[in-house]
Amino acid sequence: MPQAAIVGSGLIGRAWALVFARSGWTVTMTDPSAEVRAGLENSLTQDCSVLERHGLAGSVGDVVARITVAAKLEEAVAGAAFVQENGPEDCGIKRRIFTELDRFAPPEAILASSTSAIVGSRFTEDLPGRARCVVGHPVNPPHLVPLVEICAAPWTSETTIERTREVYSQIGQIPVMVKREVDGFVLNRLQGALLAEAFRLVRDGVVSPEDLDKTVKHGLGLRWSFMGPFETIELNAPGGIADYCARYNGFYQRLMEDPPGADAFAMDAVEKVLRSWPYEADVERIAALTDWRNERLAALQAHKSSCELGATKA
Ligand SMILES: NC(=O)c1ccc[n+]([C@@H]2O[C@H](COP(=O)([O-])OP(=O)(O)OC[C@H]3O[C@@H](n4cnc5c(N)ncnc54)[C@H](O)[C@@H]3O)[C@@H](O)[C@H]2O)c1
Q1: Same domain for 11 and 76?
Q2: What is d(CA 265, CA 222) in angstroms, rounded to the nearest whole number?
Q3: Which residue among 160, 178, 196 closes a domain?
């Protein structure tokens, strides 16, 4: 079985390790923090048991046995066919990590970054092996949410792009192509547009944060868990997308004449949300809610797999 290297083993790195290992890859993880490395076996076992319980992975013992931890980056990437980088979201740090990856990984290995918002050309330009570098931006947590955005730098080779797409598909993720480098790729641009309107509506007293969340989780989001916005509007008018646009585009055009601006994310809007948010920021509560979210996501993924929605609609 091929070998994957996971470089940076925080929230995202740990989840990627499970994605590769449950598909039979051997995985070597590394992280500069000894504390993070020491906690990996426990957290991988705990996260994998959720997958096993919902039929989304084989036995915890088998999956976790395929994962080893190395103290040094050069040990972790030796022999890797695919490297997934998950270090801090900082361009300088990514540049330093990629310099080392290009130096120590086998020449044919793909070097993919999980970066959320830094386009690859900002940290790979000067590397001799820049043609094998690519962004593979996952959604948190990738062992439970399969989408991954592939975005090439201008110098990424076609072979790298194709191979990256094949690898992600083979390990059960759903790759989409971002055809040119844009800030935030696609997913975070969509999330940003929704959040900007959400903060504005709460700031302007139109709706409470609780009711805004209900509007998404009991409204838009129910369909969005198995249909995209274009698939949604196709069914919202008898004549499909063209009919929908003929009926409603005038309204959307009026709306877009007054779009939320950068001030939607300013402190007054944030404070307005926090004032009516009933909970304090509390580490234990957030950890418990994260466990609850992962259980619900696993159940939803199991349901989607059983309906083969992934196969028919992906
Ligand atoms: N958290 C999310 O929702 C999310 C979603 C998609 C993508 N991402 C991206 O994934 C990457 C990792 O994010 P995260 O949420 O796992 O952060 P995290 O803070 O949980 O993990 C980062 C890890 O990198 C390690 N690290 C620090 N310096 C390093 C170095 N020089 N080399 C290797 N590792 C180093 C840290 O010790 C830490 O364990 C970021 O680029 C982030 O933008 C995050």
Answers
A1: yes
A2: 26
A3: 178
Task: State which of 6, 9, 11, 95 you would mutate to test the pocket of ligand 1, scoring each by most atoms of that ligand within 8 A of its C-beta.
Answer: 11
Residues with CB under 6 A from ligand 1: 7-13, 31-33, 36, 86-89, 93, 97, 114-116, 137-138, 140
Q: Are strands 133-138 and 147-152 parallel, antiparallel or unpaired?
A: antiparallel
CA distance 262 to 282: 28
Summarize pLDDT for 141-158 with one digit per residue, the tens: 999 999 999 999 999 999
Residue 313: pLDDT band with limits 50, 70, 90: low
- Whether residue 164 is found in the same domain as residue 202: no
201 and 239 part of one domain: yes
What pLDDT, on the 0 to 100 scale, is given for residue 278?
A: 85
How far does the centroid of ligand 1 lie from the alpha carbon of residue 12, in Å?
A: 6
> Distance from the CA of 40 to the center of ligand 1, in angstroms?
14
Task: Tell me what the mean pLDDT of segment 78-83 comes to.
Answer: 98
Residue whose Cα lies nearest atom 18 of ligand 1: it is 10
Query: Given ligand 1 and candidates 18, 19, 31, which is best to mutate, with the most ligand atoms within 8 Å of its CB?
Result: 31
In a domain, 202, yes or no: yes
- Residue 239 has a CB neighbour count (10 Å cut-off) of 11
| Closest atom of ligand 1 relative to the 7 alpha carbon | 33
